[in-house]
Amino acid sequence: MDHKEIHAVIAGDFSAVNDTIHQQLVSNVPMVEKIADHIISSGGKRLRPTIVLLAAGLTNSQGTQQHQLATVIEFLHTATLLHDDVVDTSDMRRGKPTANAQWGNAASVLVGDFLYARAFELLVKIGQLGVMDTLAATTRKIAEGEVLQLTNVRNPDASEAQYLEVIKGKTAILFQACGECAGLIADSPKDQTTALANYGLHLGLAFQLIDDVLDYSGEAEKLGKNVGDDLAEGKPTLPTIHAMANCSEDERQLIRSCIRKGSLDQLNEVMSIMNRCGSLEYTIAKAEHHAEQAKLALDAFPESDYKQAMKALAALSVKRDF
């Protein structure tokens, strides 16, 4: 299955989610609608709502709660993007100027807060305490992950274990919630809800690992952001962590200096070291492992188009160039 075939499985539900998203963006303050619509309509993959809808199909969910849940997840994700771009002083996302570059930091932060509030209003409408509990804890863990990443900025001594803790908190935990909450709204057996949570967690880890590979190997036009952003922001990611563990002392000091300064002046040299050490291949192998773990989690379910689409999504998460 390719992306079009995956989306064909949930086409009707996906259209309903898009309608719900735009209905819930309504505000009495025009700038709120403008900024929220700017980032939500800017060409994102809508990967997290896709996971919710596929998992809901897998568990035979009825009604419209899965549409509301997918909207909640998209709003939470979008709020974190608005805040992240302010923290990272980013000026481009998905090939367009970031909201903070266009309207300023204050407006971006406040519209992010609006989206958090709207997400929790929708959660009340869903009315399931287990879902509320999971997403409240998830939102807290995302914030903790972002703060943990902030403490590692310009820290060339960050370990692989610390890096994995960061990406679990800032990225994979929301993927995990997509699967877990889909199981909860369907009142699925505990083992199946756990399986969906594990699917999301491993898919999220695979997705972020490949994102960090593409930061050094992708093309800015396809990525919708600048190549080398992580190095420019002084963020140690698995490619640089692996390279520093496997290169010469002089090369290690060069990478350490780039991370400390948050500098792209020697990006080509850093990429050359990573290529010689096989650091991108190492990171891809880790991503492939997690993609396989995501697929294995689906063994808890009988065969269906939804299951095949979820397996295909895991496979495609590590075979992409954007």
UniProtKB/TrEMBL annotation:
<keyword id="KW-0808">Transferase</keyword>
<dbReference type="InterPro" id="IPR033749">
    <property type="entry name" value="Polyprenyl_synt_CS"/>
</dbReference>
<keyword id="KW-0460">Magnesium</keyword>
<comment type="similarity">
    <text>Belongs to the FPP/GGPP synthase family.</text>
</comment>
<dbReference type="Pfam" id="PF00348">
    <property type="entry name" value="polyprenyl_synt"/>
</dbReference>
<dbReference type="GO" id="GO:0016740">
    <property type="term" value="F:transferase activity"/>
</dbReference>
<dbReference type="InterPro" id="IPR008949">
    <property type="entry name" value="Isoprenoid_synthase_dom_sf"/>
</dbReference>
<dbReference type="InterPro" id="IPR000092">
    <property type="entry name" value="Polyprenyl_synt"/>
</dbReference>
<keyword id="KW-0479">Metal-binding</keyword>
<protein>
    <submittedName>
        <fullName>Polyprenyl synthetase family protein</fullName>
        <ecNumber>2.5.1.-</ecNumber>
    </submittedName>
</protein>
